[in-house]
Amino acid sequence: MRKLGWVAMVALAMALGAAAQAQPVYKWVDADGKTHYGSQPPPTSQDAEPMKLQNNNGTSGSGGVGSKGSASSAGKSAGATQFNPDGTKKIPKDVQEFGEGLKKALGTVDGKQVPLNCATAVDNIHYQADLMLEVGQKNVRDGYMAQADFDKAAPKIREAKGKYSLSDCQGASGNKKAFYQCMSSSNNHVTGCDKQHKH
């Protein structure tokens, strides 16, 4: 999964505003005044609140790591559009900060271990790869990513997705088996599981 781990990070950069359908994204400020984002609020913080992200249809809703949003939907209220030298739209600062927090949250594995379930693990891997592609395409349509950059990353995501199957999971051992077990939890992302279980 080394390749998919790298590709997941590339796709995450493509999808700064993307969030998980199963969970909301929480935002809280620690005792030092530092802002944090995560898929679960910290147990000690009473002021953590689920963020309201805008869905594709323009309505607000709680989003988590897999909802079908994009950088543009999270940053519509940022004011006048600015452009990068390559002609793509600049991502607003608040969306960039959200993306960094989301990237960190996706890289964290849920401490609650679940039993290995190959069907669930493969479904989660394939779903997340498809979601990366979907959000990347939306960000191209919305002008936040160049078509050439998407065309360069998309085949790598598809190739990596194709390496994970039910039979591969059933025959896995060592770190690869641990990766599949990690992905058996719908609370985990390929980024975090790959980081923890390199194979």
Number of helices: 8
Low-pLDDT sequence parts: 6-10, 12-23, 53-78
- Based on secondary structure, the structural category is mainly alpha
Oligomer: single chain
Shape: flat
Distance between the termini: 6 Å
Instruction: From the alpha carbons, calculate the radius of gyration and give it in angstroms.
Output: 17 Å
Q: Kindly estimate the percentage of residues that lie in beta strands according to DSSP.
A: 5-15%
What is the share of helical residues?
40-55%
Annotation, overall tally of beta strands: 5
Describe what this molecule looks like in 3D.
The protein is mainly alpha-helical and 199 residues long. Helix content is 46%, strand content 8%. It is built from eight helices and five strands, in the order αβββββααααααα. The strands form two sheets. Strands 2-1-3 form a three-stranded antiparallel sheet. It has a two-stranded antiparallel sheet with strand order 4-5. Strand 4 (52-54) and strand 5 form a beta hairpin. Helix 1 (2-14) packs parallel to helix 4 and helix 1 runs antiparallel to helix 8 (190-196). The longest helix is centred in the middle third of the chain and has 24 residues, at 118-141. It is flat. The termini are close together.
